[in-house]
Design a protein that fits this description.
This protein is 34% helix and 32% strand. The chain has 114 residues and is of the alpha+beta class. It has a single domain, classed as GTP Cyclohydrolase I, domain 2 (2-Layer Sandwich). The protein starts with a strand and ends with a strand.
């Protein structure tokens, strides 16, 4: 399958950080996801299937992000699990961007799960 859907730079605020002090102040993160889909049936029927309902996926991602975490790695894994389990996507790539260094635009973690 070569069709993909993506949501790029979904903004949300969450409490994340290794130290208790860092998790006290909510931080803005950017989340990008790309998942495999088969767009043929949607194009033919003009009606999305569950794993193509990106509005519902965005709502679920924002709800997931409300839970405080220590690392962006854990957040990215939780996002991948959500898409694979709840939305039945065949594979997903997740990128999380965090402003973590004063002299860098962002720190980015990208993971891919089948």
């Amino acid at each position: 399958m070569s069709d993909c859907l993506s949501i790029e730079d979904l903004e949300f605020t969450t409490c994340i950080g290794v130290t208790d002090e860092e998790r006290k102040v909510p931080q803005q993160l950017l989340l990008s996801i790309q998942w495999e889909t088969d767009a043929r049936s949607t194009a033919k029927e003009d009606k999305p299937v569950e794993h193509q309902d990106y509005e519902r996926i965005a709502v679920a991602l924002r709800a997931l992000a409300r839970t405080p975490r220590h690392t962006i790695e854990r957040l990215a894994q939780d996002v991948a699990n959500l898409l694979l389990t709840d939305f039945k996507v065949p594979s997903v790539s997740v990128s999380v961007k965090k402003k973590a260094l004063p002299d860098a635009k962002s720190v980015v973690l990208t993971l891919t799960r089948p």
